Amino acid sequence: MSDSGTPVLETPFTRLVGVRHPLVQTGMGWVAGPRLVSATANAGALGILASATMTVEQLKGAVREVKSRTDAPFGVNLRADAGDARERVRIIIDEGVKVASFALAPSKELIAELKDAGVVVIPSIGAKRHAEKVAAWGADAVIVQGGEGGGHTGDVATTVLLPQVVDAVDIPVVAAGGFHDGRGLVAALAYGAAGVAMGTRFLLTSDSTVPDAVKAKYLEASVKDVTVTTAVDGLPHRMLRSELVQTLERSGRARALAQAVVRAASFKKISGLSWPQMVRDGLAMKHGKSLSWSQVLLAANTPMLLKASMVDGRTDLGVMASGQVAGLIEDLPSCAELVARVMAEAEAALGELHALHTLPTPG
Ligand SMILES: Cc1cc2nc3c(=O)[nH]c(=O)nc-3n(C[C@H](O)[C@H](O)[C@H](O)COP(=O)(O)O)c2cc1C
């Protein structure tokens, strides 16, 4: 038990990172900002800032804001393939951030640079061979995301991928994709994981800055309302089946959209407009109903579509990335309430398992 009465489960992950609970709030673009991350950290779990949707300067400001709100460890998620990845790594090192999380496998050199500076490196992976690769390169742990998970996702379920990865590597494995409660944590631990990482569940907290109208859409959703589509950016992407997704799928727009994005990129070069400016313009024009969907998308790309929902509150227009687990979630606890609840549920589930185990054998 901790001082607050919340049960504590020590695992190789909690020891590695120095958090109280084996729970991670993942780096979700436009969602995992300083407020959510510091609330998670103060609740004793690992919060991860999403930096791919921030400029380098914004990242520095966000890291400092988290540090002003908590003394607990936290992480930063970045894209290893970003042109400015090195600058971002510098910020992580200079600001003393505890954990570097990667959406795509980081290079061996980047892992070494971070580890030399004492940063714990935890890439997210979606396949066994990626886990083996980053483990061989010195990653300290991996987050393995199964197909149930929100955002860009694979097609192997967590229940299959997790034991496969646990058996393949010797570093701590954190399970992601489909988790929202203490039963799930215990199940993951039974598979050999050292903790669980949750995206959708942390998006649906009172500490998350996602607009209420958007949270309401998630809360309303059944498991069947969460779909995987390639219609937005050509990659399998799990999200709520919104008006936008339906329109794109109905009209078979995958190719048109891909072309639209390519055209938008060249338009951006010619016009010198920034993506935010282009999207603002695109959305404004759509509002006046003078543009088709594909024309709006001319002026956008996926992060901007995510922003339209997660920041601007557009439930009609944006991408609402979501795990299937949205269909099971019905409330908006604070991060502190959520973490305490999950740990209490885990303790209860472990107790029930223990009771099963100690039943006298019949006969
Ligand atoms: C709204 C949203 C945005 C996301 N953005 C990112 C991102 O920018 N980078 C990333 O690596 N993963 C991103 N993800 C995936 C999550 O980090 C996480 O792996 C996933 O949500 C776990 O599955 P769950 O939603 O079932 O908990 C996002 C997920 C959601 C729901």
From TrEMBL:
Keyword ATP-binding carried by entry: no
Descriptive protein name: 2-nitropropane dioxygenase
CDD domains per UniProt: NPD_like
InterPro entries, A to Z: Aldolase_TIM, NMO
PANTHER family, sorted: 2-NITROPROPANE DIOXYGENASE, 2-NITROPROPANE DIOXYGENASE-LIKE PROTEIN
Keywords tagged on the record: Dioxygenase, Flavoprotein, FMN, Oxidoreductase
Any single Pfam family the record assigns to this protein: NMO
